[in-house]
Design a protein that fits this description.
Blueprint lengths: L1 H39 L6 H15 L9 H12 L3 H13 L5 H12 L6
Helix pairs in contact: 1-2
Length: 121
């Protein structure tokens, strides 16, 4: 029974993708046609235009990976950093700060706020 289901999943994948595209296109089209014409006085769109808008937004704004969380690469880097000796950590932090570090902009803005005088370049 398991081998049948295991082989059958490849048949199911295209149907699942088609169902997702159809549902997403219908939702985008419905929301657009309910809101945008009334708010911005633009025309209504068709299903395929809604799918195109959705794909365009995914290309421009990302595919839902959640910004800079890093995923497995971040965990590998953290594990590597945690396995370093204190001397290696100090050298790494020194090189990292020389390159600007992660929070370079935060440190500069905090120093301006704490000193109460604007930064002069």
């Amino acid at each position: 029974m398991r081998s049948f289901l295991y082989r059958g999943r490849f048949i199911f994948i295209p149907f699942a993708i088609a169902a997702f595209v159809a549902l997403t296109g219908f939702i985008v089209m419905s929301l657009w046609n309910a809101l945008i014409p009334a708010i911005f006085h633009l025309g209504i769109i068709t299903f395929w235009q809604a799918v195109g808008i959705f794909v365009l937004c995914k290309i421009l704004f990302g595919f839902g990976r959640g910004g800079h969380r890093g995923g497995p690469w971040r965990r590998m880097k953290e594990q590597r950093f945690n396995n370093m000796t204190p001397e290696e950590k100090a050298r790494f932090k020194e090189k990292w700060d020389r390159c600007g570090g992660w929070n370079r902009w935060d440190r500069e803005s905090k120093s301006e706020v704490l000193s109460h005088e604007p930064k002069v370049e």
